[in-house]
Specification:
With 289 residues, this protein is of the alpha/beta class. It contains eleven helices and nine strands. 37% of the residues lie in helices and 19% in strands. The strands form two sheets. The chain has a seven-stranded mixed sheet with strand order 5-4-3-6-7-9-8, with helices on both faces. Bound molecules: glutamine (GLN).
Length: 289
């Protein structure tokens, strides 16, 4: 088929299938035509217009060299909400929904929980918790201004009330304290070959890599959280498949209680967290009651 001949839906899908597979071909054609999946099946004989064909071909070529579907369509679903995503933010992952579930299990029936989302990226966690918790006060921070703009757009789009702040972890939070801190920080080891594979290659490196073992940011968050939690407050952090024991020990060192790791749907320990009862290791060492 020549690049100028404008095909019907069925021919366009055939052309794309050999380059990027049937599933991705359908997603990109639906996106180009702005139609439902059923429309592609019901109207295989419908012709694309030249503009649609040109846009579809361009997207297929970009997908063929590896660009993530979510950056091409500009959206990804997370916990039932459709989030705008750009290459300034990590693409929301299903396993991160575990953080939402843990937060809801702890605070789902407590009104007015003050929540902090550290490194909010697309805002997936902050916006979802603002929608799911009863009358929460959600603050979301990110070091990246570009990421904050995406997160703000998502809060508007999904009608969630979230306060956004540019902050390098806790740096702009002064003495603020929260009942719940959640974070999906960067946690991949800097030299991990995974960073050069698949969709991950196109995602912001700063949202993925964190020092030689991937633990640098998890350590900063665990150590800083007691200074920003109300007594009795909880911290939950996502981490890599092989980091649970190390993250639990970071939480122990920081003075957390009820420390646990939680498994995602692939049965991988994916989130660890604990409760801060209001005493720091320094208090204990000083023999304070
Ligand atoms: N789970 C992601 C991956 O392996 C990493 C996400 C992160 O670093 N927060 O690609």
């Amino acid at each position: 088929m020549s690049a100028t001949a404008v095909p019907e839906i069925v021919r366009a899908l055939e052309w794309a299938r050999s380059r990027i597979g049937a599933g991705d071909a359908r997603i990109l054609l639906r996106h180009t035509l702005g139609c439902a999946a059923a429309h592609l099946v019901a109207h295989p004989e419908q012709s694309l217009d030249p503009n649609e064909w040109a846009r579809f071909q361009a997207m297929v070529e970009r997908r063929a060299v590896g660009e993530p579907i979510a950056y091409l369509t500009g959206e990804r679903e997370f916990y039932g909400g459709m989030f705008l995503v750009t290459p300034a933010v990590l693409i929301p992952r299903h396993e991160t929904e575990l953080l939402v579930e843990l937060a809801l299990a702890c605070f789902g029936d407590r009104p007015r929980t003050r929540v902090l989302d550290l490194g909010t990226g697309s805002g997936a966690l902050a916006v979802t918790l603002a929608r799911e918790l009863p009358e929460p006060e959600v603050t979301a921070v990110d070091r990246s201004r570009e990421a904050l703009l995406v997160a703000m757009a998502n809060a508007v789009q999904l009608q969630a009330s979230v306060s956004f702040l540019q902050s390098d972890w806790f740096s702009a939070l002064a003495g603020d304290r929260f009942h719940l801190i959640v974070s999906n920080p960067p946690y991949v080891a800097a030299e991990d070959p995974h960073l050069e594979e698949g969709d991950v290659r196109f995602e912001p490196r700063a949202a993925l890599a964190s020092g030689p073992q991937g633990l640098d940011d998890l350590a900063v968050i665990a150590a800083g959280a007691p200074h920003h939690l109300e007594p009795g407050g909880w911290l939950f952090m996502e981490h890599g498949y092989n980091q649970a024991a190390q993250v639990r020990s970071l939480l122990t060192d920081a003075g957390f209680s009820s420390i646990s790791s939680y498994r995602d749907l692939s049965d991988i320990e994916r989130v660890s967290g604990g409760q801060w009862l209001g005493r720091t290791p320094v208090d204990d060492a000083n023999g304070e009651p």
